[in-house]
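Postdoc handover notes: sequence design on the structure in folder B. Input tokens:
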């Protein structure tokens, strides 16, 4: 697991490290500079001749990191040029100290870059300190920096990228690599910031979890091997031990979503899966997933008694039968429930069922909702643009309304719950934007719930292993060829 911090959290942790733990600011800056130099040297390894370095430095502490890196690179024989931006009279104390030290080193200072090409270009303009749009001389400087030839390294995050949202604030540096200090900034993992950062490396400079002082970051992400997160298997267990999933899915002659969810549930470890759907789907379901049990809507009540977990919605449609199915799984059962796809669209149109489900969840029924941004908009009454503007906040608002867990799905999925830190899913790729991918995710989460996982963890781990499976498929077949069936099959890999 790793933490993803906001700018305000990072400033607080930096301050705690200096003022309460007692590590001097100059030590942190030196370690940051050493990390920058290590990255530059790794790039230059094997290159012949004297290497040239341009450092674009602001007058804050990010610029101070750049000045310290200039000194260290100069000591190693690099030809270093520093392009300073900003008023030195308003510089931070650490910057002024580093600038004074550089008077004793053969480092060139320039008003504009002296050459069209450098071996390494280091962006130390703003870091997390940016609080406005980049325009005027700063916007022009970033434009010039981007046009210069050479390998580009950003310190902490590319200047011009909002450290909280990942948005481009006017202009932004397009880096080949970003070395970020202490903890990864959440804007580096959100789009388009992620695409501007290049390779992202988080380095330890002495700001550790010790500096939280009881105030941990509000967002974390998994980065473990998927197998380490899966439920432990009882070596003496049987198919009943590993959970029974009921999928109320599909509609007349439309069985694809039910098939994908069923296969995914098995691949994610469920012991038994029963697909309850229209009778017309019997043949295709039994041929495509021979391991699955089959039931029809007429037997839904007794099948709910059999199940450990119910998932409703994939491919269900929005007709009268679908509405009755959704109402039945809400009114007639208290089993853990996952609502996906058409189930969410039907729920958004039925205020009475929304209220009932919220009361059930408040009373203890485990509930997971898995909306993409369109479904999230319908459930919350917001526009898609408003949901995208603050996906975690919108997801948490819905989680609080329903007293459940919400997997708010987009290019980055956020798992949201009441009084719970957000889990941002970092696995997955654009190839997974394909029909049926959401049905696969629903089946995986349902399987983890059936194996005894708590609802928030099941949603978070399910999203992670779903994305990792998609990454395996994309690596093997390419993002253009990625299909939901492949993702389901890769889930057990």
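Designed sequence:
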């Amino acid at each position: 697991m790793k933490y993803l911090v906001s700018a305000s959290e990072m400033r607080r942790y930096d301050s705690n490290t200096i003022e309460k733990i007692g590590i001097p600011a100059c030590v942190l800056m030196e370690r940051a500079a050493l990390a920058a130099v290590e990255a530059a040297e790794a790039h230059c390894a094997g290159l012949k001749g004297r290497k040239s370095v341009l450092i674009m430095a602001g007058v804050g502490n990010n610029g101070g990191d750049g000045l310290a890196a200039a000194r260290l690179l100069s000591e190693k024989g690099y030809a270093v040029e520093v392009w300073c931006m900003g008023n030195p009279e308003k510089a931070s104390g650490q910057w002024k100290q580093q600038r004074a030290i550089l008077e004793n080193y053969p480092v060139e200072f320039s008003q504009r870059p002296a050459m069209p090409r450098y071996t390494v270009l280091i962006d130390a303009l703003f870091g997390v300190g940016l609080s406005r749009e980049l325009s005027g001389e700063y916007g022009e400087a970033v434009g010039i920096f981007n046009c210069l030839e050479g390998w580009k390294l950003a310190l902490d995050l590319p200047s011009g990228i909002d450290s909280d949202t990942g948005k481009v604030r006017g202009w932004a540096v397009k880096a080949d690599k970003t070395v970020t200090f202490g903890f990864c900034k959440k804007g580096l993992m959100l789009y388009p910031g992620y695409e501007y950062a290049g390779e992202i490396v988080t380095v330890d400079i002495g700001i550790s979890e010790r500096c939280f002082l009881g105030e941990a970051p509000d967002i974390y992400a998994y980065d473990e091997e998927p197998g380490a997160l899966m439920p432990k298997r009882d070596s003496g267990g049987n198919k009943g031990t590993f959970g029974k999933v009921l999928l109320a899915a599909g509609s007349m002659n439309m069985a694809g979503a039910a098939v994908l969810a069923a296969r995914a549930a098995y691949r994610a470890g469920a012991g038994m899966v029963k697909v309850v759907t229209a009778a017309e789907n019997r043949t295709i379901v039994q041929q495509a997933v021979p391991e699955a049990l089959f039931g029809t809507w007429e037997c839904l009540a007794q099948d709910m008694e059999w199940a450990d977990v119910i998932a409703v919605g994939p491919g269900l449609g929005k007709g009268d039968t679908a509405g009755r199915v959704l109402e039945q799984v809400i009114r007639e059962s208290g089993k853990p429930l996952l609502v996906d796809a058409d189930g969410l669209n039907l729920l958004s149109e039925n205020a009475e069922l929304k209220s009932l489900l919220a009361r059930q969840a408040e009373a203890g029924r485990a509930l997971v909702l898995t909306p993409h941004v369109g479904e999230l908009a319908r459930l919350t009454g917001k526009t898609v643009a408003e949901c995208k503007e603050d996906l975690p906040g919108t997801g948490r608002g819905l989680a609080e309304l329903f007293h459940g867990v919400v997997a708010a799905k987009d290019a980055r999925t956020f798992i949201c719950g009441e009084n719970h830190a957000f889990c941002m899913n970092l696995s997955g790729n654009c190839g997974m934007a394909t029909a049926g991918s959401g049905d696969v995710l629903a089946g995986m989460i349902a399987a983890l719930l059936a194996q005894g996982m708590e609802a928030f963890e099941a949603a978070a781990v399910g999203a992670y292993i779903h994305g990792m499976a998609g990454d395996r498929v994309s690596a093997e077949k390419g993002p253009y060829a990625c299909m939901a069936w492949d993702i389901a099959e890769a889930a057990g890999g």
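Context for whoever picks this up: The chain has a mean pLDDT of 96. Don't rerun without checking with the PI first.
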